[in-house]
Amino acid sequence: MKKRNAFLTMLSLFMASTFLLTGCGGKAATSPAKKESKIVIAQGSDPLFLNPHGNDEGPTNCVNSNIYDALVFRKGDLSIEPALAESWEQKDEKTWIFHLRKGVKFHNGDPFTADDVVFSFQHCADSKVCAGMVQFVDTIKKIDDNTIELKTKTPFAPLFKFLSKVMIIDKKYVEAVGEEEMNLKPIGTGPYKVVEWVKEDHITMKANESYWKGTPDIQNVIFRPISNEATRTAALLSGDVQLITNVPVHDADQIKQNSRLDFIGKPGLRLIYLTVDVNRDKTPTIEGKNPFTNPKVKEAVQMAIDKDAIVKNIMNGHAYVAQQGNVKETVGYVDGLTTPKYNPEKAKQLLAEAGYPNGFAVTLDAPNNRYPNDYKVAEAVASQLAKVGIQVKLNLMPKSLFFNYIRPGDKTSFNLTGWASSLGDCGDWYNTMFYTRDKKKGHGGSNRGHYTNPAFDAALDNADSTSDMATRTKYLQECTKILAKDTPFIPLYFQEDAYGVSKDLDFKPRLDAYIYVYDIHFKK
Description:
Blueprint: H1 2-15, E1 38-43, H2 58-64, E2 72-74, E3 80-82, E4 85-92, E5 95-100, H3 114-125, E6 137-144, E7 147-152, H4 159-163, H5 171-177, H6 179-184, E8 192-198, E9 202-207, E10 220-225, H7 229-238, E11 243-245, H8 252-256, E12 261-276, H9 295-304, H10 307-314, E13 319-321, H11 344-353, E14 361-367, H12 374-386, E15 391-397, H13 399-406, E16 414-420, H14 427-433, H15 454-463, H16 469-486, E17 489-502, E18 505-506, E19 521-522
Parallel strand pairs: 1-10, 1-11, 14-15
Antiparallel strand pairs: 2-3, 4-5, 5-7, 6-7, 8-9, 9-10, 11-17, 12-16, 12-17, 13-17, 18-19
Helix pairs in contact: 9-11, 15-16
């Protein structure tokens, strides 16, 4: 690897060639003209952590996907290809042998070995938030520096999808500097090295010229969190940034009309929904008995919310009304499943029948800088519920506070949040959000509504205990039907993944909505 990079560097210096191939992934070597190439990318919010096992959250995962690699790589269409594991074989239905890619180095020069893989999986398992990513692992052990053995607890059909989420960290580095330093100055094997992270301002990255796939075309990358929608659009229009995510819905036409920019919008995987405390008799923000334990109240709440109006008026048409928690492309989707239709008069009648003729008061917790128009959607929900007698107090906060506030579920009764099944499989979401809390390690870590149903847990356990994807699909669909009946969440809409991008860039959106800069190029 070193000899090849040295050879390419000499050629680029003396011949200024831009067309030599590295032979490792088929990427062109970086030319002198591209040494200072730079793009600035604006997201709606900053990562919560640069520790890849600190939080399983979209913008956080997006940035970290540029710093770290996993054993396998999830491509833009969600298909899987080898990454730090270059090959593997299956010994039996629960035992896999992975052969690691040789010659790979971390950003600080430390060699990548099997010790780092074993350490990373344990580090993830020890995370309060991300343990669910590795809940399928029984044991993982080193055979030699370039080989590991992984045993699953049961046969596990979506193994490789889950492996794509477990980012590999440098054991030697983390043990030397500690968790806090590792989070601020992360070291991975990925295509970009972090130069500087000024929280809530910018993350500066530089290309990893020794990257095992080949040197990235774009040498310098800055991720900027710009939560203010008008400011984010203005930065794109002025040329200060070259790519923005979460295009403000009312700015799409303005970007379309700009001759220097492209607007790209496509149906996304991310569901925006309301979590409801459906199990506890006493819930934090409601006086007296928890009304959400009554099926008629849950049905009334659904009938009181006009999802079409929210999509039309708040999202300006750039969203898609949801009838369940999964899109058709996701394993676990159930064809024909629907939610109660908007009918405020019927909602009032159901509330009266449930013993709440005058409604009740509840607090809705929601972020104000995580999802497009999140606080406006929360306001619309509150306004619509007020019309049927449910008085909603809004508790809005930045995402840096919001997720920690609602995650234990001890302070919240009702909240607005989102989830994208980026693996194309809803099992991860169901395990994290709806499996009974404290029943099984790595499950229910973010069960904010304290939902519990033994039938749901059993179906999910069955889904996680088969090597046959058709069988897994059947059990996950059973889970979906149980959730639709119990209503621990109310689906609102699926987001449109919307981007504004300079016409100078060759950019293709991914289904998981990550911005993987290695796949972005300047047009010739």
